[in-house]
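Example 3.
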Amino acid sequence: QVTLKESGPALVKPTQTLTLTCTFSGFSLSTSGMRVSWIRQPPGKALEWLARIDWDDDKFYNTSLKTRLTISKDTSKNQVVLTMTNVDPVDTATYFCAREYDSSGNLFDFWGQGTLVTVSS
Amino acid sequence: SYELTQPPSVSVSPGQTARITCSGDALPKQYAFWYQQKPGQAPVVVIYKDSERPSGIPERFSGSSSGTTVTLTISGVQAEDEADYYCQSTDSIGTYVFGAGTKVTVL
């Protein structure tokens, strides 16, 4: 059974660094073709893809946010971590992590429930 | 930056057909995926690789592609299909993008 769960602070102050953790089970990020992405959604707005990390440690970032994002994985802990520097109130959003697997058609087939992060002083 | 363009809203009566378009320059070369999102829930894929339907998704959901436009069709719309629908694809450098979403209202 594949599950993903996001965790992190609910409230962050402007200019601080946000660190989010995606803890998953039911698959291994060392399996060829496995990928995990972070996606966010401001309240009442659209989904926005942020970053992706692959089984071979390849990393991809949203070009508009690339300078502020870092994605990493800890395969032994089944975790993917996203850090976002210099946060602003516009970064207030629900942050999701989602799995993608080549053998499943490269769709986001499993998602976490999302975690709401508010950026406010 | 690369963009996928969707209509903001589509309204349809129960039993009728809803069509949602998504346009993007890279769509002739990159697959499109469609996600359904209901309030307070994570998105669920309804179509992948332009026209493939995952197991468990009703047959009334179908996808097609023509040039720079992909289309999600919901045939025989039901009240439970009222949701936001997002197309998603890949740009020329391998990063992902979502469309702005289309709100489907069942009248």
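Residues 5 and 112 of chain A are 5 Å apart (CA to CA). Chain A touches chain B through 23 residues (CB under 8 Å).
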